[in-house]
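Need residues for this backbone.
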């Protein structure tokens, strides 16, 4: 019987699972939510047990929707957000009974600035500054602010590695996670001098952090009998070394033309946040862009990860908080708002929301500025009482996300790339307004994927390699990708967005000047 693969994607608010065949065809998928806890401003945490329970339910749901599939599954792989899971003795080390730092936890902003001030060489591979979304600032905060909790920590793992550890009982770290989120340089190892300077010299002694990491697609271990019973899969099923969700979404968005068009191709993974991913055969140090990370996905290639911290979540916030909005955010609310906005655009063209402009940095600017303290700037705001005000606010926010993506792509092009096509992956591809804006406002061809679940597909690829179905990830991409469909920009809309882009860039510089000046106020 033909072999099948199970892929699990753990996002910010839900776990999704998919069953795939060896050619990348999706047989079934299911999703289950889990709570994100916000015990204090800037703090965002999870309970790992609640995440695992959602994973179990999602996998069971996908298998139930594909009768007879469970016995044909030969491998399983996990991707997850770049959240940080802690194992511990005694009570959980974080607030509210939590043991996982969400990627969006910004409590370590001051610690991130302190680490940036060291000038350590690994910062060259972080765009020159360290984001509070990385693991080191969070761990430094915990050690200093709650030493008793730190003393109870026995392990620290990227969430994708923690899930594989839970599934197998094997403690192993992914090269993807260590290269992208830790003070670790592939080929060189840990930055021990920096860790000692920060008082974290014992960090690599936690769990298996000191052991050599494994590339995505390697064998993490065999599915344990207990986990197999929970998930409804055969014990001993191969579990692959996984990867971060952005990289999974990148794999699922590439196709057989990737190698030839590498310098001109970017992948935009849009969800709660957004990542813009590119690969190069040579090392390129780009300010305000995470990386380059050597071998983080493909051996011999350097990965750049630019990004926007809040994108889908920003549109959720408009729905939830605007005085004239529905005060809740779900697929139906987004669809209704988008339908009304498209009607307005078709009737009014560029005049709709012409005076509203946004610099969309609600949780810092990852790229191209690289400043975790930066915040959003909005212009053209009035009393905000009418439905028209709400629709304009939603549209202006969505347009700003596309314009900032263009800004990031221009920044990449100024440092060696020549991006001419952008493959769209993730939930944003299901929002017709965002698709329209990305098509018309980014100044590049937009590629839409034929796969309905590109992130899950990208996670199925390491599973296929671990199962021995393909020799490496590039081969899996070439054989499992369903291809893409290019969308060309509407010329008249593109010209209007050129004007809006100029306004966005001017506001971006004005906001940055105000941010620099306000440093004196923060200093007292």
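Answer:
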């Amino acid at each position: 019987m033909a072999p099948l693969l199970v892929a699990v994607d753990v996002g910010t608010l839900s776990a999704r699972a998919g069953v795939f065949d060896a050619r990348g065809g999706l047989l079934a998928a299911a999703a289950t939510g889990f709570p994100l806890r916000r015990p204090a401003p800037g703090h965002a945490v999870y309970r790992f047990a609640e995440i695992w329970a959602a994973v179990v339910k999602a996998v069971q749901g996908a298998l139930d929707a594909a009768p007879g599939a469970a016995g044909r599954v030969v491998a399983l792989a996990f991707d997850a957000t770049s959240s940080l899971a802690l194992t511990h003795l005694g009570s959980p080390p974080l607030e509210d009974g939590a043991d996982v730092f969400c990627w969006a936890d910004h409590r370590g902003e001051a610690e991130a600035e302190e680490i940036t001030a060291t000038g350590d060489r690994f910062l060259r591979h972080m765009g020159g500054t360290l984001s509070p979304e990385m693991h080191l600032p969070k761990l430094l905060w915990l050690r200093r602010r709650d030493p008793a909790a730190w003393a109870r920590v026995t392990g620290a793992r990227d969430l994708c590695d923690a899930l594989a550890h839970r599934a197998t009982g094997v403690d192993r770290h992914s090269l993807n996670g260590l290269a992208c989120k830790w003070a670790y340089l592939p080929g060189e190892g840990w930055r021990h001098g920096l860790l000692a300077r920060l008082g974290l010299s014992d960090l690599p002694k936690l769990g298996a952090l000191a052991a050599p990491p494994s590339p995505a697609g390697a064998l993490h271990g065999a599915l344990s009998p207990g986990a197999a019973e929970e998930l409804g899969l055969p014990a001993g099923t191969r579990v692959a070394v996984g990867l971060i969700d952005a990289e999974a979404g990148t794999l699922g968005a590439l196709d057989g033309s990737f190698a030839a068009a590498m310098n001109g191709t970017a992948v935009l993974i849009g969800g709660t946040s957004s990542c813009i991913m590119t690969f190069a055969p040579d090392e390129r140090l780009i300010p305000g862009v995470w990386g380059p990370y050597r071998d983080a996905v493909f051996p011999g290639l350097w990965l750049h990860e630019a990004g926007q911290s809040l994108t889908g979540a920003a549109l959720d916030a408009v729905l939830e908080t605007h005085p004239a909005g529905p005060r809740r955010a779900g697929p139906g609310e987004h669809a209704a708002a988008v339908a009304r906005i498209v009607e307005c655009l078709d009737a009014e063209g560029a005049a709709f929301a012409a005076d509203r402009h946004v610099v969309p940095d609600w949780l810092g600017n990852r790229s191209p500025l690289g400043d975790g303290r930066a915040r959003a700037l909005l212009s053209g705001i009035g009393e905000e009482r009418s439905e028209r005000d709400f629709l304009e606010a939603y549209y202006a926010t969505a347009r700003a996300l596309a314009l900032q993506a263009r800004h990031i792509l221009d920044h990449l092009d100024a440092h060696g790339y020549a991006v001419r096509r952008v493959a769209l992956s993730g939930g944003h591809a299901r929002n017709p307004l965002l698709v329209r804006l990305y098509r018309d406002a980014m100044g590049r061809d937009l590629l839409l994927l034929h796969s309905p679940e590109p992130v899950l597909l990208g996670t199925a690829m390491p599973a296929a390699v671990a199962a021995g179905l393909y020799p490496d990830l590039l081969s899996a991409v070439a054989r499992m990708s369903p291809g893409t469909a290019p969308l060309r920009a509407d010329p008249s809309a593109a010209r209007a967005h050129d004007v809006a882009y100029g306004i966005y860039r001017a506001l971006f510089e004005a906001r940055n000047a105000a941010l620099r000046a306000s440093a004196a106020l923060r200093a007292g």
